[in-house]
From TrEMBL:
GO biological process, one term: phospholipid metabolic process
Keyword entries, A-Z: Membrane, Transmembrane, Transmembrane helix
Subcellular location: Membrane
One cellular component (GO) term of this entry: plasma membrane
UniProt protein name: Phospholipid phosphatase related 5
InterPro entries: PAP-like, PAP2/HPO, PAP2/HPO_sf
Length: 268
């Protein structure tokens, strides 16, 4: 007799291909924002000798305590390992229980069958990637529109105060050609609000914390889920503190990024 269970809408070919197209479009937009100069940040002025912008230059991002390659590896690898591991454990412990009674196999189209564990894993990881790309795009949009200046902006800008006529410390400089430093360093120093590292790290932490709370719950003990969730959030918080300590972001940049990343995770 035919099973009364019907395939998940997520796995129907039309919906699956549509969601793949959405992820590909988001990835393309992230590429244009991150690796091209298609979109330039707003040219925001500054006050001569502004103490808030006069911190020493911390150098390239590769010299940071939390290097971009490490952050990207954690953001890409930790969810895969954590979600896949949890789903495998749940499947092994409960594959004979009511959780999978109606989902012994999951149909995709008219010919293919997918294990429910694989379906759930891809669903959680797919939503995670969507949120990660969306967070990155929101951050880039905020940075480009505000043109907020980094704490070390004047160190890389190297303005010629004599040519600008900065006899008074409170004089505001709005000329687009006021800087004499490296154009690439200046462009990066104009994109700090909100902090991208703070946003994506807290997004990943909150998403995985909520996943653990929902899927692990009391199965592994009352403290296992909260302890793991707290550890993830604390690591994300340390990422934001490191950005401020290295003079790469202001506190407001970090708090705004964390609020954005956390909001996207909770929404999804």
């Amino acid at each position: 007799s035919s099973s009364p269970w019907k395939p998940s809408r997520w796995w129907r070919p039309g919906m699956l291909y549509f969601q793949v197209v959405i992820l590909a479009a988001l990835l393309m937009l992230v590429y244009y924002c991150e690796f091209t100069d298609t979109f330039a940040p707003a040219q925001r002025g500054f006050v001569c000798g502004d103490p808030a912008l006069s911190r020493p230059d911390p150098g390239p991002e590769q010299h940071s305590r939390l290097q971009p390659v490490v952050l990207c590896s954690v953001l890409g690898g930790l969810p895969v390992v954590l979600i896949s591991g949890v789903e495998v454990i749940i499947f092994l412990l409960q594959h004979n229980s009511h959780l999978y009674d109606a989902e012994k196999v999951v149909m995709m189209g008219d010919c293919c069958y997918v294990n429910p564990m694989v379906r759930r894993t891809f669903q959680f990881l797919g939503v995670y990637l969507f949120g990660l790309f969306a967070t990155d795009i929101f951050v880039n949009a905020g940075q480009l529109m505000t043109g907020s200046l980094a704490p070390h902006f004047l160190a890389v800008c190297r303005p010629n105060y004599t040519a600008l006529g900065c006899q008074e410390a409170a004089q505001f400089v709005s000329q687009s050609d006021a800087c004499t430093g490296d154009p690439e360093d200046i462009a990066r120093a104009r994109k700090t609000f909100p902090s991208k590292e703070a946003a994506v790290s807290l997004y990943a932490a909150v998403y995985l914390a909520m996943y653990l709370t929902a899927c692990v719950g009391p199965r592994a003990g009352r403290l296992t889920g909260p302890v793991l969730s707290l550890a993830l959030v604390c690591l994300a918080g340390l990422t934001g503190i490191n950005r401020v300590a290295e003079y790469r972001n202001h506190w407001t940049d970090v708090l705004a990024g964390q609020a954005l990343g956390g909001a996207v995770a909770v929404f999804l």
